[in-house]
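Exercise 7b. Backbone tokens:
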């Protein structure tokens, strides 16, 4: 059995515990009120419901914009496959009497290995430039060793 002195200590302990909980809850309420004031500090006279509706509209608009950007990116990626993306350059000396590697072969290919190969042959009398179309990494015209090397370099 609990005597009256123990009941007083128990009551005092519970009272102190209740005061601690009350102070803690008051502190949490103060912090929540501070956050609420910061949230509505923009000066707009809107209630929480209107703010949430506006935020939802903004999120919906942003989501739509992101979808549009994603579609644009997919389209640009598909279109970019036809652009020149790979380049190979081989310099060489086709004639023994001309000094240095003044001649070159330039391969310009897209993502599908389609494009053009440009060859420049330099000798003492002048420079001649030739081009050949490339489809799938090969040409209908006969390719020189340097042109094949430039295509391999471009891939």
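Sequence design result:
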């Amino acid at each position: 059995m609990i005597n009256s002195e123990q009941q007083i200590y128990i009551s005092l302990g519970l009272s102190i515990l209740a005061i601690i909980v009350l102070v803690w809850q008051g502190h949490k309420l103060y912090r929540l009120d501070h956050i609420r004031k910061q949230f509505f500090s923009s000066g707009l006279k809107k209630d929480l419901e209107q703010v949430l509706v506006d935020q939802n509209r903004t999120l919906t608009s942003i989501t739509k914009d992101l979808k549009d950007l994603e579609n644009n990116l997919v389209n640009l990626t598909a279109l970019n496959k036809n652009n020149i993306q790979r380049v190979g350059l081989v310099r060489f000396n086709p004639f023994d009497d001309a000094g240095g590697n003044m001649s070159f072969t330039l391969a310009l290919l897209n993502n599908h290995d389609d494009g053009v190969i440009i060859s420049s042959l330099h000798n003492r009398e002048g420079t001649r430039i030739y081009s050949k179309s490339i489809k799938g990494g090969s040409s209908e015209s006969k390719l020189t060793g340097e042109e094949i090397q430039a295509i391999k370099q471009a891939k």
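Instructor comment: The two ends are 93 Å apart (CA to CA). Residues 90 and 146 are 6 Å apart (CA to CA).
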